[in-house]
Batch of 2 targets.
Target 1
Amino acid sequence: MRALSAAELLDVWERGLAHSPAQRALILLALACDETPVEQLAQFSIGRRDAQLLALREQTFGPQLASTTICPACAEQLEFNVDIADVRATSNTELEATLDLTHSDYDVEFRLPTGLDLATLDPGASVETNRQHLLRRCVIIARSAGSEVAAEELPAEVGAAIAQRMAKADPLADVQIALACPQCQHTWPTPFDIVSFFWIEIHAWANRLLREVHSLASAYGWREAEVLALSPWRRQAYLELIEP
Ligand SMILES: [Zn+2]
């Protein structure tokens, strides 16, 4: 993996705008991990994909994740900081290729969902429809009393058991951050999704950068590529000269 230049990150932002979060994740990784074929990146499990995205986030914006949330007990607004290293610690580096589950009369062999599986989901479809779609893609074979059963015919509780097993086998796919409210001492876990977190940051960064390009291009007559080629420090120094 390599760090992305300002011009490349701006390009990713522009291309990603029209796409779903799962597709944005693939666009980002395809550029940063250009030594790995994109077909291979698309087959990474969600946890493995997210480990790569966390590493890229660290290279791009640093090792600290800062966010705000509302305490569910007392409605106090609080800021929290998490180290990427702490999130990564939940990662399971030895992922099994296939998993087995025996639940009541059912024996199911399945694999973990990949970034490509998520990219094929319809953002407009219901959660249930997308859940069934994922199950159909990830179940390799299911049997009940010796006869083969289609993934869509599995009872809901077997589907839920498969989802639980997937989460356990690929813990980084479903990161929960433990929070504590300084006001009322309430503690609770909050889900953390690196794809949407990183995208919100890239979106804010891109808007800020375009404003900077506009200011510098207007003041000095430079082209966009010339402004983007400046280091952030040099860009800032010129901005301060024109905006005293
Ligand atoms: Zn509270």
Target 2
Amino acid sequence: MFAELRVAVVVPAFNEELNVARTVRDVPAFVDHVLVIDDASHDRTFLEASRMRRRGLEVLQHPKNRGVGAAIATGYRRALELGVDAVAVMAGDGQMDPRDLPSLLQPIVDGAADYVKGNRFARGDVWRVMPPARVAGNVALSMITKVTSGYWRLFDSQCGYTVASRRALAVIDAAGLFPRYGYPNDLLARLHAARLRVEDVGVRAVYGPNWRSGIRLTTVVYPMSFVLLRSWMRRLWATRVAPVEVAAAVETEQRCASAS
Ligand SMILES: Nc1nc2c(ncn2[C@@H]2O[C@H](COP(=O)(O)OP(=O)(O)O)[C@@H](O)[C@H]2O)c(=O)[nH]1
Ligand SMILES: [Mg+2]
């Protein structure tokens, strides 16, 4: 529990045998459920995660690789079944600093946000820690995502360190989330379409000695352009063309939630 909230942490992991056990071990003790999603890894990720002894640990497995967005959607679904109030994402490569989790949860505790995301650029050391090519890519995608999502105040769209409230997950249909790397951009546009409140909180950038990424410019540009365009169109449709229908859907969900 964190304050009055029951909290789950979702850990998407693909070929993370070197990092996943440490990631699970370092999840703060106040977290009630740790849900590792092994995305059909070719290595010992599943065994490394399963050997950890920790209250509330579950290691789920995709029979086939589906991508980081789909792994997170699987974790969200399980967390909703478990009835938690807030769900954080901490990637299985240990790039999220556990010391930042309380400040990401706080706006949900305060009732000030429905979804909170990390912003590594809010801290001055990002320029020293993050490799220059990643700085350039993250700045460019953050600027584009301001337009596509409509959240002009937010930055660092690609930061995967996030906390979603139960209400946000119930409203946005996480199962339909883009399955691969464009998922944060898709998610932000969905959150805006549903009129949910999103806040940025400064978090540490972590690029340890084992750091590597599955992102390859050649394979990511095409799907990324597609997901940005699609999420932009959908968001415009929901906020400009059919706002009444969206508002009605959100209201129905709120009524169901308060009745249950
Ligand atoms: N590359 C990759 N990562 C995945 C996949 N499914 C889950 N993940 C996990 O998603 C997280 C983020 O991926 P990563 O390549 O580190 O992205 P980056 O941190 O944005 O460079 C890591 O913990 C991966 O283990 C997948 O299909 N491919
Ligand atoms: Mg990573």
